[in-house]
């Protein structure tokens, strides 16, 4: 199985059920599948194909999830990056991974604008903030006018879906290549260990989605079972407790 098939199965079985929640925002499984199709089809129109890399410089958000699945649906490789990286650190990772597209928003885009011309391999920048309207591609426009038609491409289980950069001393991160099969199997094993079901509600608090724990143990595990993932906008402990109580959360993973 691949990540595309995993999400499509969840959308078929749990279409109207909430997949992602952030405050009052709710994104159902059907909406997540449709929105990620729009991203996937937009990337295809840009000339992105299997094996191309797409860097994601985004905080935890429903948009992160939509974009991640849009990238992986077409066999492209998602590269989630830490939003706390400095410009020179990002430049080093760009040179290492050579993404064809960057998806980000202000304030993460602003410090990159002056140096973007040096990265000849970056062909497109998708801006979620709409601050640079007319200069970069607008995520809002993709959502408003993009095609939600089902993507017919089928990544192979062995295809690379994700490059996760490790932490390390003196900023020497290593890109770890994770296949669709790696991620799907990890989700299945985690769900079995957690005894997770579609009735569960998992809270994503301090774990960023660019990190494998947040991505795999919380997000992908929940998607594989049709559970709901509740995100928090900040790191307030009182806010966490209120959210757990309000959402009747049953799963919380922390480090």
From TrEMBL:
Coiled-coil regions listed: none
InterPro entries assigned: AMP-dep_synth/lig_dom (IPR000873), ANL_N_sf (IPR042099), ATP-dep_AMP-bd_enzyme (IPR050237)
Domain (AMP-dependent synthetase/ligase): residue spans on this chain: 7-255
SUPFAM superfamilies for this protein: Acetyl-CoA synthetase-like (SSF56801)
Gene3D superfamilies per the UniProt record, alphabetical: N-terminal domain of ligase-like
Name of the protein this chain belongs to: AMP-dependent synthetase/ligase domain-containing protein
Organism: marine sediment metagenome
């Amino acid at each position: 199985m691949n990540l595309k098939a995993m999400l499509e199965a969840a959308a078929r079985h749990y279409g109207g059920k909430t997949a992602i929640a952030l405050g009052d925002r709710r994104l159902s499984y059907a909406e997540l599948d449709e929105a990620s199709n729009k991203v996937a089809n937009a990337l295809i129109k840009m000339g992105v194909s299997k094996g191309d890399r797409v860097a994601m410089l985004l905080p935890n958000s429903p948009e992160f999830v939509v974009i991640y699945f849009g990238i992986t649906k077409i066999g492209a490789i998602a590269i989630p990056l830490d939003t706390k990286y400095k410009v020179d650190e990002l430049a080093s990772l760009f040179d290492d991974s050579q993404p064809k597209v960057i998806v980000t928003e202000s304030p993460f885009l602003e410090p990159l604008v002056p140096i973007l011309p040096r990265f000849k391999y970056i062909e497109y920048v998708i801006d979620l903030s709409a601050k640079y309207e007319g200069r970069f591609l607008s995520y809002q426009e993709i959502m408003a006018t993009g095609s939600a038609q089902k993507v017919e491409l089928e990544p192979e289980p062995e295809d690379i879906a994700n490059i996760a950069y490790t932490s390390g001393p003196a900023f020497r991160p290593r890109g770890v290549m994770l296949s669709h099969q790696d991620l799907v199997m990890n989700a299945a094993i985690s769900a079995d260990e957690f005894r997770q079901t579609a009735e569960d509600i998992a809270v994503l608090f301090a774990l960023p989605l660019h990190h494998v724990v947040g991505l795999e143990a919380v997000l992908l595990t929940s998607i594989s079972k049709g559970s709901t993932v509740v995100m928090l906008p900040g790191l307030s402990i009182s806010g966490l407790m209120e959210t757990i109580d309000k959402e009747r959360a049953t799963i919380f993973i922390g480090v």
